[in-house]
Specification:
single chain, 308 residues, 78% helix
């Protein structure tokens, strides 16, 4: 079940980079689009959970959900949406793959957790694969701001890493709370922060270049990207090592690169194939220890169930 959820999450997140790009190209202000997406998704999910009496809006009053929303949603997606004005969706997805490395570093620095040598090696291997995949960005298709935009995406991943660790902390502190409700609360916080940023920095979207494309992008990102994808992410965080779910940032670039090349005509160079193989090797090394632990637990559980 965990592996199936992980694969579906990777597929969903791999498509969201192009959906963001299409929304931005249609004239949707990036911070406004991101804010509406996450606040609406969080509100719908919270209302659904409240109607089933499995959550209350009191979760919004917890500082843990505010801090998680600031890191996991606000920092990450303010950076990503803004940057996709100047870089391709494939490049944005590749740069987002720096997240797991920052998580390992934050764990080591804040929690004083020793990084296993194999995981550290995997992170370095995966990062080298990201460097190979990054080479197509050198065509400078976004003008003079493309390099700045790339660095902004990486900076946003620091917030993502902090938010992922805070999400694990929130799940442990509120074990009675559903992962869906916790996810909804953090998305609402991230959403209103993004809308506030939009109010301060962007003009109202009075006229869109392509209204249909903008609305389809927003609906897909809200219903599938946020409500389905991020709920799966939060569910996986609550049941596995916090690094494991975030490795979608290594897997989904393959999907995003292929979609960007096929549907949007984005450049796809030879080094994408080589970089993908290197990244996959890094993913396996980084997660070998937690994945092996999960397999052992599942095997032990099956043994216990089979005993008379």
């Amino acid at each position: 079940m965990i592996l199936l959820g992980y694969l579906i999450m990777c597929l969903i997140f791999g498509t969201t980079f192009l959906a963001i790009k299409l929304g931005v190209e249609a004239g949707l202000p990036p911070f406004f689009g991101a804010g509406v997406r996450f606040f609406a998704a969080g509100l719908l999910m919270m209302l659904w959970m409240a109607a089933r009496r499995k959550a209350g809006f009191s979760l919004l009053l917890r500082k843990e959900t505010l801090f998680t929303g600031f890191g996991l949603t606000f920092c990450t997606f303010a950076a990503l949406y803004w940057a996709e004005q100047y870089i391709s969706s494939g490049l944005a997805s590749v740069l987002s793959a720096t997240g797991p490395a920052f998580i390992l570093l934050l764990q080591a620095g804040v929690s004083r957790i020793r990084i296993p040598r194999l995981a550290l090696t995997g992170t370095l291997v995966g990062t080298s694969g990201v460097a190979l995949l990054l080479l197509p960005g050198a065509e400078n298709e976004g003008g003079s701001l493309w390099l700045l935009a790339g660095l902004v995406v990486v900076a946003g991943e620091v917030g993502y890493a902090a938010g992922a660790l805070l999400a694990k902390h929130a799940s442990a502190k509120f074990p009675e709370a559903s992962p869906v409700a916790l996810n909804a609360a953090q998305m609402m916080h991230g959403g209103w922060l993004l809308l506030l940023l939009s109010l301060l920095t962007e003009r109202a979207p009075l006229a869109l270049a392509d209204t249909s494309q903008a609305l389809l992008s927003l609906l897909y990102l809200t219903l599938i990207g946020s409500m389905a994808g991020h709920t799966l992410f939060y569910w996986l965080v609550s049941r596995t090592h916090p690094v494991f779910p975030t490795t979608w940032l290594y897997v989904s670039p393959f999907i995003a690169l292929a979609l960007g090349a096929k549907l949007s005509g984005e450049a796809l160079h030879w080094n994408a194939a080589v970089g993908s193989c290197v990244v996959l090797a890094g993913v396996l090394l980084t997660n070998w220890v937690p994945m092996r632990s999960l397999l052992r637990l599942r095997k032990a559980d099956r043994t216990l169930r089979s005993d008379p």
